[in-house]
Amino acid sequence: MDYVNFGIIGCGTAAGFHILGVKNQPEVKLKFVAAHDVDEKNLKRFTRRHKITAYTELENFLQSDEFEAVLITVPHYLHAPITKQAADAGKHVLCEKPMAPTLEECDTMIQATKEAGVKFMIAENHRFLPAHQYIKKVLVKGILGDVYLGRTYEGAFCESSQFLDPNTWNFRFDTGGGGVVADQGVHKFSILNWFLGEVDYAQCWCGKAFNSPEIKGEDNAIILLHYKSGAMIDVSVSSTTIHPLNNNLELHGTIGTLLEDHSWNDPIKIFSSHNEAEKKGQYYIPSEYFEHGPYPKYYTISARYEDTHFAECILNGEKPEFTPEQAKNAVAVVLLAYLSAKNGRITYMDELMEIYNTIGTQNVLENLADVIHHNYNQIHWS
Ligand SMILES: NC(=O)c1ccc[n+]([C@@H]2O[C@H](COP(=O)([O-])OP(=O)(O)OC[C@H]3O[C@@H](n4cnc5c(N)ncnc54)[C@H](O)[C@@H]3O)[C@@H](O)[C@H]2O)c1
User: Fold this and answer.
1) 8, 9, 13, 304: which to mutate for ligand 1, most atoms within 8 A of CB?
2) Does ligand 1 come within 6 angstroms of the Cβ of 39?
3) Which residues contact 306 (CB under 8 A, 6 or more apart)?
4) Helix (H) or strand (E) holding 146
5) Could you give the angle at the alpha carbon of 368 between the alpha carbons of 103 and 357, nearest 5°?
6) Closest atom of ligand 1 to CA, residue 124
7) pTM over 0.90
8) How many angstroms separate the alpha carbon of residue 78 from the centre of ligand 1?
9) For residue 24, which phi and psi values (nearest 5 degrees)?
């Protein structure tokens, strides 16, 4: 076997990115061959367009021997139950982010895939973006020294119906596990934890720039993170910004600074006095080549690297580089941010862990609507 066949569960936006990522890439180690969706119209449209087999029933789909792995791209509250069903059927599981709304659901996913003996990875594309892999190398080499300050941003203009229509699953507390912090913040926490280690405490503000229904979460948020390493990071996430989807990151260390912006063709600039810095006394763009392109290219590039990595782990019997435990830790930072918004103060990870060990982390998601700032009262959308 020199490639892995995948079936897709959920034929929406994310599924499209994954398929596009491997289109016309003969060297990749995977093929998407089948799909299932509860919405038959979506299923038919998607499978016709991509010329793959359609399965209307999940049980028949999971019994199929057309593929050995599944990609799960469904609303967040379904990640845990569908991962368990797929693992029980013996399929390797690649599931979209965030792993799940609560830590207990993450545990269910870890346990089910371990017991079934299948490979399991959360599809956190930011972990596999070549620019981020390069930044990790820069940090490990010590080009910035000790990072003590940083800020990062993701701005995405989502369809306003995703907020305003109470029937869409996105950004709802019950089906999405919260708003933009759960949906987009989790990308940031996954890479920041990888770069900087463990979060010690956090403070978060959640706001709504749109007057969306009560059951919908925040569409903008600012989260301040303090890492055990001593680094302080300011994370801003928005689903309402009026520009093509973008991410940026700024890291300041004891001997250098790194700037990253996904909308630049060369996404990284470094200023450093390290002896391996390519230029001294000025910013430089690293000479090492890595694949990148402004949105939507960085989406399909990162999806391709991520899906290929997972397929190679299946083929070579290796452990995925992004572990389920790391994905769960990113969910823990989402919940810590929400807990801090509810507390209206700096909140320690130990406080979240106390909840996890006693009443359960679903409790953090209860009554979150009460603490969201109604910023739309002062905002006039034209
Ligand atoms: N990595 C990224 O940058 C990125 C981007 C977009 C979405 N996502 C993630 O992908 C996942 C899906 O998001 P989306 O934007 O594609 O959502 P979407 O609403 O566009 O698509 C979800 C699909 O799942 C189907 N579905 C719902 N319930 C189902 C069930 N029980 N069984 C089978 N299918 C079911 C829906 O009919 C729909 O076609 C989420 O986890 C989201 O956070 C990730």
Assistant:
1) 13
2) yes
3) 123, 124, 125, 127, 128
4) none
5) 30
6) 1
7) yes
8) 10
9) 55, 35
Whether the per-residue pLDDT at 374 is higher than 70: the answer is yes
| Stretch 258-276: mean pLDDT | 97
Cβ neighbourhood burial of 89 (10 Å; 0-12, 13-18, 19+)? middle
Pick the CATH number of 4-124 from 1.10.10.60, 3.20.20.150, 2.30.30.280, 3.40.50.720: 3.40.50.720
119-171 confidence digits (pLDDT tens): 999 999 999 999 999 999 999 999 999 999 999 999 998 788 888 999 999 99
127-298+328-375 to CATH, choices 3.30.360.10, 3.40.190.150, 3.40.190.290, 3.30.930.10: 3.30.360.10
Atom 5 of ligand 1: nearest residue by CA position: 14
53: how many CB neighbours lie within 10 A of its CB?
A: 14
Q: Interior CA angle at 120 toward 310 and 104, to 5°?
A: 145
